[in-house]
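In practice, a research group might receive sequence data for several interacting partners and want a quick structural hypothesis before committing to experiments. The following worked case mirrors that situation: the sequences arrive first, and a predicted assembly follows.
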Amino acid sequence: MSRRAVITGIGVVAPGGVGRENFWNVLVSGRSMTRRISLFDPEGFRSRIAAEVDFDPLAAGLGYQEIRRMDRAAQFAVVCASEAAADSGLDLGSLDPGDLGVSIGSAVGCTMSLEEEYRVLSDGGRRWLVDHTYGVPHLYEQMVPSTLVVEVARRVGAEGPVSLTSTGCTSGLDAVGHGAQLVVEGSAEVVFAGATDAPLSPITSACFDAIKATSPDNDDPEHASRPFDARRRGFVLGEGAAVMVIEEYAAARARGARVYGEIAGFAGRSNAFHMTGLKADGREMAEAIRVSLGKARMNPEDIDYINAHGSGTKQNDRHETAAFKASLKQRAYEVPVSSIKSMVGHSLGAIGSIEVAACALVLDRQVVPPTANLYHADPECDLDYVPRQAREHAVDAVLSVGSGFGGFQSAMVIRKPEGAPR
Amino acid sequence: MNPVDTQAGAATDMVITGLGVVAATGMSAEEHWTALLAGKSGIGRISRFDPSSYPVTLGGEVRDFTAREQVPRRLIPQTDHWTHLALYGAERALADARIDPAALPEFEMAVVTSSSSGGTEFGQHEMERLYGQGPAWVGAYQSIAWFYAATTGQISIRHGMRGPCGVISAEQAGGLDAIGQARRLLRGESRLVVTGGTDASLCPYGLVAQLSTGLLSRVAEPERAYLPFDQRASGYVPGEGGAVLIAERAADARRKGRGYGRVLGYASGFELPGRPTTLPRTLRKALDDARLAPSGIDVVFADAVGDPRRDRVEADALAEVFGPGQVPVTAPKVLSGRLYGGGAPLDIATALLSLRDGVIPHTPGVTRPVGGIDLVRDTPRDAELRTALVVARGYGGFNAAVVLGRTDT
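A structural hypothesis for the assembly, expressed as tokens:
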């Protein structure tokens, strides 16, 4: 009997609230959490809006030392890990720490701290290096993104395989896929897998401004993130994290755990075309979807819901619509497809794992979140994108996809484990 | 998800068929190897900027590298120095393996690199523009040059590789985790993986960040600055570069009569503060994975960070697993500096060359070694080598080990 990786715990920090239930309430509300940026003064930037998390680290249970030491992205991640651990009901103390692994994704690591420390070390950008000792004592920990997974590993007491995946905007899906693989191959019995990004800082906004990737709809932030809508004008930056507890199915059942879903198939492909550009045919994403279905030994007809990348750029929305049609054929027209980025923004590497959390909750609650702000569908995007209102829907299996800079395309199939084809 | 480890066996074993070394010790595997055997150091005073106002002035720079000659012109302004080095390394590694990517199935070629610090120099430059001149002065390439995935993405695009792409960050241990990930892919859906990696943060901001660990040596004489396992150990010298490696399935490599050596085993673990080190367990797991007893290992390429306490932990772990002084241990990385994401891949390349030629490169400079290990010093040592163990430990608690074997073992 081969090993199967299932999700038994979920922790989320996302725009709209800290915690899994707050997150779910945002998803079913159909309300967009985007607003004018408050984390820094966005005056002078082309895009001045984002989906921010109202995050109080003290209220979230972090100590003063941790708050001082950890970048915001690390704070998000450890808070998620603790929530996921509690949700899973696992007694971490009863596990051999060597059987416990951690796989965290992040696109931009500790960007906020790195930029903050640059300002300190350069006297606000006026003069480099007043004194090298002006930097924080743990500056190196901000330069290496691996610090994010170090913090989670310490929080949960892991001594097994621990690594950080940083594949840009597919980091979140890729890190969860890697975590599932560690369980399936037996390198670990339990893995905390997810991703975190807190990129809302001037350098991030400036670099996306420079390529006009982010929406300039500053006067109407709540409607700025509108994937698949003909009037979309780019994505809206977000921040957040999600961490899942992944464990072996038989062990989870033996201890009577609640199983949200099985990570049944995962695959990544790349377009080898352009760092930021996408070809309209969606060929490589379609291949990733086909391979992930194949690994799950499932057919297009088995998919009941698609969690789209849906970033809200014209090229993305057309690219993935083509990919769904190419890989799922007629089924693409039959299933609901939605983008939660319309509500929680695009948190770069984190969003892939936040979307996995959403998919697990969809399987649990049999409700499909909508695509907010979708009023005038792009004629090129002719699938059922669940405009504006959540929908009750019978869902046994979901497909989640991600697409990112570097040309990376990832796809994951998550399903209810009972009665799955083996 | 279908488990992949059931396919283990000769047909899917992993062979390294191409080496693309780019380090202070050389711009090719052979140049690097010759330098190691001669004990010729690449460590010198940092020249990419004036280091005189910093407490550390030494680095392992890749001095012979000029982007204009070694990177396509269009890509130079779009990418950081760290990616330049990797693009060069990837080209050399593919040529070394005699691979024509255009002749292979596009979806079966994967790219998995390790990166620990991304495009630090590029990022600092853009932050200078942001704070010196304003947001509109930040360049369009910041979004694709600074992030940790830039190197993997550029290699995939340049060589038309459309398989899975990965980027692993586990500081110095990340290079071995990339090897582990490459092996998973070769046992499943990929027939070729471009792996290994580089790092290059010998820029002002990068150096200041590295200084904060307290692990950099402040000794200013190149030959005395980095002395791991020596009673005078004072930290390490940072370097830049690394190695890009081509990994293929054993059956493919054998058919073409190629390959430097096989990856026989891999394991990784994590060390928590206040708990005993997990390094011995990781070493044993790697040996188990290779189905070898400790006596089956002929040489160990150590992590050798050069910090007395950390070196002691490593020496003790080796003594615990192999028995005190029972296996030759070496750390020729003192000649190139510590390379973070690029470090372990370079050690893999060095170990494979060592297996090929039956000679263990020495650890120059060490005169008063700590007890418990047989450190190869003074001169290279000839030996009958069938297997090698490469050890890496990353800042924060990462550890990993890879067992390599000659292709005929």
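Before designing any experiment, note the following. Residues 5-110+145-412 of chain A form a domain with the Peroxisomal Thiolase; Chain A, domain 1 fold (CATH 3.40.47.10). The first strand of chain A starts at residue 5 and ends at 14.
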